Amino acid sequence: MVRREEPVPFAFTAESDRFRSNVTPPRTPPTGARTAGRVLWGLVVVAGLVGALLLGMPALETPHTPDDGPSGPTAAEGR
Q: Does residue 64 lie in a domain region?
């Protein structure tokens, strides 16, 4: 179709030859390999989170020191 030089009212109808439908075709059911891949990917993500938690737990613990008695201010000991 030849483009017109003069302005056309409802220009979208004049350019309807380039229109593409926004209707998507129906999805195909996932194959067994795709389902297995998704399950494996989920397991990898969960294992990574659990591993990070297990490796990070020692860093979150406070060092344990033996109790030598009450640890109050030392400035008042000389009185």
A: no
